[in-house]
Amino acid sequence: MICENIGFDTNGDLTFAGQNTAELAVKYGTPLYLLDEDRIRERCRTYIGAMASAFPGNFRVLYASKASSFKRIYEIMNEEGMGIDVVSRGEIYTAIRAGFPLEKAFFHSNNKTDADIAFAMDNGVGFFVVDNAEELYAIEREAASRSIKQKILLRLTPGIDPHTYAAISTGQVDSKFGSAIETGQAETITEEALGLSHIELMGYHCHVGSQVFDSDVFIRAADVMLDFSAQMNKKRGYLTKILNLGGGYGVRYIESQPTIDISANIAQVGEFIHSKVSELGIPMPQICMEPGRSIVADAGMTLYTVGTVKRIPGYKNYVSVDGGMTDNVRYAMYGAPYTILPAAKICVNREKMTADVVGRCCESGDVLQKDVVLPSAIKRGDILACLTTGAYHYSMASNYNRIPRPPVIMLSAGSSYVAVRRETEEDITALDI
Are 308 and 380 in contact (CB under 8 A)? Predict the structure, then answer.
C-alpha cells in the first residue's frame, strides 16, 4: 500500500488510521475528507527532529498553510512546536481564531494588498516574505505609520528547475514569484531593503517547486542562495541571519512513486550547507524549511458514494461519484495521479473493469482519475476511497454548481471527531442579499 496508515481488516474492508472506512462513510456521510491526526503529528516530529540534527539550535520548521488551512490544523501545529507560513488574510485570521502565536508566522504572497499588510502588522505577524519592490515600499510605509521596524525576508528566484509539474514549479528566473538573482534584481532589492529605516532585513527565502523526491534540488538551491549571501556580504556588508529554503518534498500518490526518507534527505542538505558556509567563510544562518504537502497529504483520504456506473460497449466505462472537482480539482488542473480503491470488499466476482472515475459537476473535465481498475461488480451505493488527499483538497474546494463542501473528520487513536462541519445549502446562500 502507498502509505503505512492504509490497510485492510479481516473482512477485507479498507482501513485508514486503523479505522474501517466504510463504517466512517455511514457515520458521517459522503463526500468525506478524512485526516489522520497521528500521522500529521508524526510528520511534524520527523521534520523537527531531522532539522535539529542537521542544524542544532539554529533552525525553524514552518507548516505551509496553503496545503490545508482550518482552525484545528493550526492548533496541532502550535502543539507540535511548528511555525507557519500564511499567504492571505484568511489564513492569518484562521490562525488567530485558533490561538496560534503570530510571531511564529511568515507572511507570503506575490501580491499583498495594503489592507493585507496593515492587517498582518496590526495582528503581530512576525515576518513578511517580500516578493517585489512595490511590496517592500508598501511595508515600509505601513511600518513607518506605526513607528515599528518590520522583520522581512526577501523572496529570491535562484533559477533552479526542479523537474516537476510546470504549474507547481516556482524557482525559475521567469517565475511570477520573487526577484531573480541572475538578472541582478535580487541585488537591487537587497540594497533597497537595507536602505529603509523601518525594515529589518533578516535574510532570504526561495522556493523551487513541489513534488521533489530527492535532495538535489534543495542542495542546488542552497548553493546559489549561499553564494548570493556571500556576495552581498562582500559587496554590501550584509550578513544574512535566516535562509529559508522553502518546501516541496513529494509524497506517494501512486505505487510507482518513491518513498522519501525525510530525515536522510535533510541530513544530506545539512551536510552540504555546513560545508558550503565553511568554504565561503560566512556564518551559518538559521535554516528554515516550509513543508506543507509532505506534512498532510498522506494523512488524508476522501470517501465517495458511487451513483452511476455507465458502460459504453466497445468504448469506455464511467463510474460517477457524489463529489468531484469541487472537492478535488487537482486532476483537472494538473492531471495529478491518484490511487482509488473500493472501501468495502466486493466479492460478487473477481472480474475487473477499467473506468474513468468522474464527478457530479456539469463539466466534461470533472474527472478524479482516468483508467482506474475496479471490480466489475461495482454499483450504485458502493463507497470509493481516493488516497493521499490531505493536501490541496479542502483548501482548494469550491461551491461550483452550488455544491456544499465536505466536512473534515480527524482520526486519532481509534476515534474520530469533526474538525470542519459539512456545509449546507443554507451556508451557500448565507452571503446572498
Answer: yes
Question: What tens digit of pLDDT does each residue of 92-106 get?
Answer: 999 999 999 999 999
- Report the distance separating Cα 351 and Cα 329, nearest Å: 30
> Which DSSP state fits 66?
G
Contacts of 72 (CB under 8 A, 6+ apart): 98, 408, 410, 419, 420
Q: Are 101 and 121 in contact (CB under 8 A)?
A: no
Distance between CA atoms of 67 and 64, rounded to whole angstroms?
Answer: 6
**Residue (of 144, 93, 152, 160) closest to 126 by Cα position:** 152
Q: How far apart are the first and last CA of the chain?
A: 49
Q: 305 forms bridges with which residues in the sheet?
A: 383
**Bond from prior residue into 31 cis (ω within 30 degrees of 0):** yes
Residue (of 296, 300, 254) closest to 16 by Cα position: 300
Q: Are 279 and 236 in contact (CB under 8 A)?
A: no
Cell of 312: 459504453
Helix axes 216-236, 185-194, angle to 10 degrees: 50
Q: Which pLDDT belongs to residue 326?
A: 98
Report the catalytic residues.
362
Angle made by CA atoms 277, 278, 280, in degrees to the nearest 5:
60
Crossing angle of the two packed helices 71-79 and 89-97, in degrees rounded to 10? 70
Cβ contact 338:298 at 8 Å: no
Q: Is the pTM of this model over 0.85?
A: yes
CA distance readout (Å), 100 to 43, 199, 421: 19, 24, 21
Cell of 149: 521596524
Helices (H), 285-345: 293-296, 330-334
Strands 300-312 and 383-387: antiparallel
Of 3-17, 152-166, 279-293, the poorest mean pLDDT is in 152-166
| Nearest by Cα to 2 from 409, 431, 399, 386 | 386
Helices (H), 281-430: 293-296, 330-334, 425-429
Distance (Å, whole) CA 7 – CA 1: 7
Predicted confidence (pLDDT) at residue 173 exceeds the cutoff of 70: no
Q: How far is CA 223 from the centre of its chain?
A: 24
